[in-house]
Request: fold
Amino acid sequence: MFVDIHSEIYSWIRGGLFVLVIYHLLIYFQNRRTTYLYYSLYLLGLFIYFYQHVFDNIVSEGIYEYINFPIQFLAYACFALFTRNLLETRIHNVQWDKFLELEVKVLLALAPMFIFIELFLGYEFQLQSFTIVGPLLTIFNLVSFYYLYKIPGITSKYFVFGSLLYVVLANISFLQLFLDEEVFANYGVHPMFFIYIGAFIQSIVFASTLGHSVKRIEQRSKNAEVKLAIKQKQMEELKMTALQSQMNPHFLFNSLNSINNFVLKNDVEKASDYITKFSRLIRVILKSSSSLTIPLSEELGILGLYVKLEQMRIKGGFEYIINVDNGINLEEVKVPPLFLQPYLENSIWHGIMHVEGDKRVELTIRKEENSIRCEVVDNGIGIDNSKRQPHKQINRRKFFGTQATENRIKLLHRQANVVVDISDISTEEKTGTKVTIVFPISS
Amino acid sequence: MTIISFFIPTDKDILRDIKEDTRTIKFIGEGSVKQKLDVTKFIRKFIYRFDAVKTVRQIVYIKKGLSWELESISAIQSQNKKIS
Reply:
């Protein structure tokens, strides 16, 4: 049974290979993954190579003398492409991927070369050439398997096992080039028995490998979908938080209260001025809240307007100093709208409001390599003291919006290199608080 | 750039206003905007390169509406003597 190449077992294997060719080609047309296309073409090459034994001598000596070796080279070229795709060597082993790419080119060159050899030099010369090329290919494959085995994941292990088995068995069959057919017949097998069995086992192993690979891709796709859904939800929450934490609601109510006070005191001019600035601020906030980011120039403009309103409310006022590095293009640096406002608000109402004498809030924007550093420094009572302050009528407000701001800026820059630090800088001679925000420059 | 965008006089603006160039003027620091209730000013310090005494001077701009107007240039001395 194993001696006769026309027996059932060889026919089954040939038939099975052809079915696999069609099957994987159909899967390719369904999902367009080139892994299936290359595998299908590899199996087609093997099938055509095996099919020579079905034909009689006239056909096999005619056509197959031309295509016997070229079809193998083409099949192995497709196999190399299949390997690169399945194991993602472009990602996992860039170095060896280049060698596989070279192997494909060499095999594609050898295929027509052997046809020319048959044309001009005859089949015997082809055989002799293959006795040189064959072992070289085998050695290259064995070395490849060593590197491919190291690729993480079970797919590479299955792949190497299946391929190694095929290579070993195929080489046993190729010994027929050097040995008599009788040697094999004495063992009760046709010389091609081993390569047929190798192809059969390899197909089974690869079926499992491809199944595992598909499962991995589907899992990756599912994970990506889940991550995307989470990110989208976070962005929606971020937008909501941005809208909600734009401004402490107390500021809005207290501003209306202030306007009321100006009117009651008959200070119409001040009331009018405050209303004008207040409505401008609200308009700007509503406009900017529709964007996730605004230019830093706009942010500083809004802050200036906000601080002006606070200065109008506080008896004696306070000084607001802004220092900006000339090297910063304020139009190009993008920030979440009103991300600095909560810190300024805290400096005013929890810091400088409680000190006598000169009150000062200083905002410094500096460029550091690929980051922007924002510092808000006040000469208030210091954050440590502020937290110990008893609740007073006029100061019944909380540290508002700073956590939301911190989250917004960290989410915007995906947590990379974002620093938010609030520290008490009080000494024996002076008191104060310093807020430092560092984030990467992004356009 | 919107109507509310923050901006300050550039080095080019300052040099044009004081009719000098970078060969004669050396700026000190980046300058500051000082915003109080009634007035907003931009202050930049500089020295004349060929001034042997290296007197530090400051140029002051005042915010009028949406633009900056040159207010004064003075030497930073104890009397704050105005030059122009």
